[in-house]
Amino acid sequence: MSDREFQGYVNVKQDTGQIMFTLRADLSSTKIKAAMKLATGVAVPKRGSCQVVAGCALAWMSPDELLVMAPFAQAEKLRASLDAALSEQHVLLEDVSDARAKFILSGTHVREVLAKLAPMDTHPEKLPVGSFTRTRFAQVAGAVFLEQDDLISVICFRSVQDYVYALFCDAASYGSEVLVRE
Amino acid sequence: MLILNCPYCGRDKDETELTAGGEAHLKRFGPGSSDQDFEGYLFGRANPKGLHFERWRCAAGCGKWFHAARCTATLEIFGTYKAQTLEPPQVIKDAITAKRPGWSWRNFS
Predict the structure, then answer these.
(1) What pLDDT sits at residue A1?
(2) Which residues of chain B are within 8 Å of residue A133 when distances are taken between CB atoms?
(3) Domain A18-98 - what CATH class?
(4) What is the CATH number of the domain that holds B20?
(5) Over A43-67, what HEC string results?
(6) Are A34 and A26 spatial neighbours (Cβ–Cβ below 8 Å)?
(7) Which domain covers residue B67, as residue numbers?
(8) Of the candidates A63, A120, A121, which has its C-beta nearest B62's C-beta?
C-alpha cells in the first residue's frame, strides 16, 4: 500500500494510517453502548451516521455491526481497551486493518464525484454531514463517510483498492465536471 | 428501476444495490410433511400481475433481508417492512387498501 494521491477537480488521496476493527454485537444493548463508550471515548452512533472523537471513529454499518477506526499509533492501546471493556459481552471483534482500504476525497464538488459512482442521492437533505452509509462504487461494495461538505472518506475492501482508486481518479479528473459552475 | 427503503438502515436503496429473494411469507414444510406440501414449498410460487409481497436483501448496504409490498404491473411500492414477522404489518395493509380496495394475496387481505 502507498499513500498515493491524485489532483483533479476533487483531490483523491489514500489514507494508509488507519487501524480498523469490525465489531459485531447487538447495538441496541445498553451494556454494549456503555462498553464501547468506555473503551473508545466515543458514543455509539445513531443509525446511518459516524461519531468521531479525537481521531477515533465509530461508524454504524448495520443494526449489529460497527466499524471502529483510529490512527495506527493508537492501535495497541485501543485493542487492549476494547478487549477489556467487551470481555463480558457477547461480541465478535476483529482487526480488519489489512482487509480494508481508505481514501479521502476533498474539494467543493465531492458530492458530485460520489454521485457519478454510487447509485445514491448525495443531496445534503438525504446525505447530511456526519452521514455514514454503505453502497457500491461502480462494480464493488464500499462505504462512505461524509465528514464535511467538502471532505468524504471512502472505505472499500483492500482487494479492490486499485480499482476503486482508479474509479475515483477518473471521476475526479479535470474536464469531467458535470454540474460545476464557477 | 426500483428504489426501496431498507427498514433496517433507513436508506433508499437502488435496485442495483439489492438482491431479489423471491416471494415473501413462505411457510416451510420440512421432514414429515406430505409430498404435496413439500412440493408446494419448494416450487409453488405466486406470479401475480399486480400486488405482490417479496423478499429483498440490502446487499450493497446493511446486508439485512427485508420485505416489500409492491405492484408488479405498475412498479408502485406500498411499503417495506422488517422480515421478523409472519404477516404484513397493519400500516402496510392499510397503505395497500387505500390504493387497491378489496385486495387479497394468498391468505392475506
Answers:
(1) 55
(2) 9, 11, 61
(3) alpha beta
(4) 3.30.2270.10
(5) CCCCCCEEEEECCEEEEEEECCEEE
(6) no
(7) 3-99
(8) A63
The residue among A122, A126, A132, A136 with the most chain B CBs within 10 A of its CB, best to mutate, is: A136
ipTM score of complex: 0.88
**Nine-digit cell at A105?**
476525497
Domain A5-15+99-171 is of which CATH architecture? 2-Layer Sandwich (3.30)
Place of cell 465528514: A147
Q: Where are chain A's structural domains?
A: 5-15+99-171, 18-98
B51-57 and B19-23 strand pairing = antiparallel
Q: Which three cell numbers stand for residue A2?
A: 502507498
Provide the angle, in degrees to the nearest 10, between the axes of the packed helices A110-117 and A161-171.
120
pTM for this one? 0.91
Q: What are the pLDDT digits (tens) for A134-169?
A: 999 999 999 999 999 999 999 999 999 999 999 999
A123 Cβ under 8 Å from any chain B Cβ: no
